[in-house]
Amino acid sequence: MNASIVNPPANVWNVEQRVKALLAKMTLAEKVGQMSQFNASEGYAPDYLADGLRAGLIGSVLNVVDLKVVNELQRIAVEESRLGIPLLVGRDVIHGFKTVMPIPLGQAATWNPGLATTAAQISALEAATTGVNWTFAPMMDISRDPRWGRIAESLGEDVFLASEMAVAMVEGFQGDDLSAPGSIAACAKHFAGYGAVESGRDYATTNIPESELRNVYLRPFKSAVDRGVVSIMTSFSDLNGVPGTGNEFLLRQILRDEWSFDGFVVSDWDSVRQLQIHGLTENDRESAYEAVTAGVDMEMAGDSYANHIASLVEEGRLSITTIDAAAANILRAKFRLGLFENAYTDPGALPPIANEHALGTAKTLALQSVVMLKNAGGLLPLSADKLRSVAVIGPLADAPYEQLGTWIFDGDAGLSITPLNAIRSLVSPDVDIRYLRAMETSRSRASEEFAEAVQLARESDVTILFLGEESILSGEAHSRADIGLPGAQGELVQRIREAGKPVIVVILAGRPLTLANILDNVDAILFAWHPGTMGGAAIADLLFGLESPSGKLPSTFPRMVGQIPIYYSQKNTGKPPSPEGIVHIDDINTFAPQVSLGMTSFHLDAGYTPLFPFGYGLSYAKFEYKHICTSAHEIRIGDTVTISAEVSNVGQVAAVEVVQLYIRDLVGSVTRPVRELKGFRRVNLEPGQAVVVEFDLHTNDLAFYGRDMSVVTEPGLFHAWIGGSSTASLRTEFRLVASE
Ligand code: BGC
């Protein structure tokens, strides 16, 4: 199941020779120039940068997406600087460019890496038309805290799913040939542990034991490095006392020495200078020293490198070998991207923006990302020919910008198909679609329009509420402490319920939300994340049954914020909870003395289960799992065991099921999670159809970092489950025996 290691391209030695030859001609100032990236967003047009470019003092720019400006910057760098070194042009192309795909967390909910590759490829092609040759994506920070605003950009809580999706995205951005038109460099970020910020507050501290770091947080990065990701971005966060941008253990020991990474490392925005603010250094000069020493090759949007590296070398504090290595890492990327052959962009050589393929992919991805959380009485799908009237209510039913989500600098809200528009064009004109926004934003507390909303609901056959969060409520520096539906939305649901008609809620949001307060007041819930440009079209197709929902949660949904962090791959503890062992706060006998004997690990007011577990998602079909088998009951190191089960569609409609394989290593020299995802497959089944789904597990897939931080594969008993979520109950087992 490990990502395959891609061999270096045949011309790699040629690239090394060219890097060496170029370095030999460079002055120290020119080497530092390669290590310096400057912001070139509007207002900083070429004039501002031209002198620096001519003098070879700038290796990269970011945030310029005007093709004329980019080509002109490249022209100055290539034709007017002494050595003609082209520029890396960076941009946050996170989930699309003009065509916006679902947010990364939504993409993870598709469990469809192939589609994520296509989406990243489209995003790369669109971005490349403006001269961008480097994206700051994918973000692969494992996050188990939905309060964190950047969970929207993440690929969820699970190591395996996030690694598969991250590698898929790297493949899409970079393609098979980095130098081909439309291939852009990817950037695995943020190295490392950012997703574990305390209380989900952005930029906060992280404390992660090394075994957890290696077994969880670093693994997607390792997969991306094995796939040849060109760059890695450091994290703003403090990891066990050393901020990511000054963390030699991460950037040298792990990344270079253990993983042999030969791409380059970029700081996060101004995070070199921030080492001082963290309290790690006294001033910018020391920050530059620490960052270079730690292994940060390029400084993003700051001038500490430009101002201080040369004199630090002259003083003998930084060695020229260190600088050469950093500059070489950056030059290597430029050669691999083919920039020395052609630095200019001809948009005519690339497909048009927002073409049919792009919009079609955005729609398919959105379709597959939606997770159906509830469907009482099979209310969904709606049949358009049986309805006379539908009330469409809520602040996100017709909000073209909000459905795009966070990080959409270049997204075109004009292209958005909103749910309201899509529903109107899908149903026949005989169906009366009555729309009321009811709340100005998702955060509004005013309820003046609720009476009208209730009236509308009462007079309609069914109500579809479009609720959730505006795009501004998630993303960088947009963490929340309360992750319920904001504003008066809970009250709106309650009031609509009182109208006595069926209620469907479609939620557009950048994170898992606590939904316990509305769950019993609605008949059906579709959780659509921020679904992007084509989100409305996808949602309408699902509501009216043109497709069945197939998304599965990439993150556990807590009942209450106080349960966070709650994730499926937890440890068992010495006192694991069970349904019989828990007491609810309302049932406690006030006069009983407190005892701890027989007690287990749970919350008096929340129990121990989440509202919806990882991997969960309903379908219009019904799937049954049986006959789980293992190809061998005993295996030895180096063997592969095949775990299989029969999955059948016993429902009435064709649909896709995401079949999931989990294992548990029952005894380890360090305790192992109660379940770990080790495989998944999307399977399309007609009604009545059954298939046997097989997963091959190599013993390497059972390995983990042990007590001494080396990779171990330990003999012992393993349980394996196959099913449609992390609570799958169909189990088999096998034993790994020590080789003689
Ligand atoms: C973010 C990065 C992003 C960079 C450039 C930073 O604030 O943390 O993820 O790539 O800005 O926009």
Give a nutshell description of this structure.
With 740 residues, this protein is of the alpha/beta class.
Mean of residue pLDDT? 96
Euclidean distance between termini CA atoms? 26 Å
CATH architecture label name of the domain at 3-349: Alpha-Beta Barrel
Distinct small molecules bound, one entry per kind: beta-D-glucopyranose
Largest sheet: 6 strands, mixed
Radius of gyration: 27 Å
Instruction: Provide the helix percentage.
Output: 25-40%
* Low-confidence parts: 1-7
CATH class of the domain at 3-349 reads Alpha Beta
* CATH H-level homologous superfamily name of the domain at 3-349: Glycoside hydrolase, family 3, N-terminal domain
Please characterize this protein's 3D structure.
The protein is of the alpha/beta class. Among the domains are: 3-349, TIM Barrel, CATH 3.20.20.300; 623-737, Immunoglobulin-like. It is 28% helix and 18% strand. A six-stranded mixed β-sheet has the order 11-16-15-14-12-13, sandwiched between helices. Strand 2 (60-62), helix 4 and strand 3 (88-91) form a beta-alpha-beta unit. Helix 1 (12-25) packs across helix 14 (320-336) and helix 2 runs antiparallel to helix 13 (304-314). Residues 92, 136, 189, 268-269, 476 line the site of beta-D-glucopyranose (BGC).
